[in-house]
Amino acid sequence: MSSILHRLPHSILDGLGRALSSGRIQPPYSGLALRDRLAGNDQALLSKELEGFRKSGMSPGQIAIVMELLATERARQQSDHDKIQMVWTDPYQDGPCARDTGVLARELLGQATRSLLITTFSISRNSTTFQPVSEAMNRNPNLDVTIILNIDMSRQNLFGQSAADAFTKDFWMTKWPWPQRPKVFYDPRGTARNPMDRAIQHSKCIVADLERVFVTSSNYTESGQLRNVELGVVIRDGELAVRVVELFRNFIAQGYLLPLPA
Q1: 85 in Cβ contact with 99 (< 8 Å)
Q2: Are 37 and 134 members of one domain?
Q3: One domain, residues 96 and 77
Q4: SS3 of 209, please?
Q5: Under a CB-based contact definition with an 8 Å cutoff, are residues 229 and 101 in contact?
């Protein structure tokens, strides 16, 4: 059965509970008594709902408890909703109820004060997308930035250490030409000569301050953030953020990911 109580926000429900328990709202529950809280048809619907409670034998105090319980549950639902947001890149139109990928990425970089973890499969040909990361490090010299990426130089017929050396030289020259450098790691399996031994670092995420996790289909590239159709979610959950970061720290500690020479 549909009820106006199903769609009232936390603030209204909480206010009703307080007013009922303090006696500021007393039976009969006319629309006039509710005029400062709701307007128009909503007054009449709520009045009918409260009168139904009264006629069933509920006291104002008992109805107040119901309102307070509903308010608490509504607040929890809103909190859960706020923890997860859809993130969308679409060159044709704005995604429904979603954040833009490029805007969200820049927001995470701009708000981070302690740490950033960025993982990506491919990167832009120049320093365009990494420049905001460099700017974040310049604003906060204590910002701990770790980037995990993929190396595949097979098209240049380079493998193993030769591939890593060539990639390293190009990365610090064209992708990150600034003096202050982050910690960068890669999966050495991406440089294997035998295609059957080769694997790619394909995860794409940003973790900011061990508080927010952005998991996305978008690579850390200009096209991924601005032009492609990409979908992801940003989750405000410290426990999840720590688990993601610890996963990659363990990979590094066990030698599954190797440092890019600075």
Answers
A1: yes
A2: no
A3: no
A4: coil
A5: no
Dump pLDDT digits (tens) for 212-261: 999 999 988 888 888 888 889 999 889 999 999 999 999 999 999 999 98
Is 0.70 surpassed by the pTM of this model? yes
Mark which of 51, 81, 111 sits at the end of a domain.
81
- The strand order across the sheet containing 144-149 reads 98-100, 84-89, 230-236, 212-216, 205-208, 115-119, 144-149, 183-186, 258-259
* Segment 56-110, tens digit of pLDDT: 999 999 999 998 988 888 777 766 666 888 888 876 655 455 568 888 888 898 8
Residues 129 and 178 in one domain: yes
**Contact at 8 Å (CB) between 58 and 212?**
no
pLDDT tens-digit profile of 155-194? Answer: 999 999 999 999 999 999 999 999 999 999 999 999 999 9
Q: Yes or no: say if 201 and 150 are a contact pair by the CB < 8 Å rule.
A: yes
- Cα–Cα distance for residue pair 203/216, rounded to 1 Å: 9
Please check whether residues 118 and 67 belong to one and the same domain. no
Our measurement of the distance from residue 69's CA atom to the centroid of its chain's CA atoms, rounded to an integer in Å, reads 29
Tokens of 140: 């906060």
How far apart are alpha carbons 12 and 206 in whole angstroms?
A: 37
**Cβ atoms 189, 159 nearer than 8 A:** no
Contact (CB, 8 A) for 148 and 186 = yes
Residue 255 sits in a domain of what CATH number? 3.30.870.10
Contact 63, 54 (CB under 8 A): yes
List the domain range (segments joined by +) for residue 25: 4-81
Judgement on whether residues 13 and 103 belong to the same structural domain of the protein? no
pLDDT of the residue at 26: 86
Overall number of domains in the chain: 2
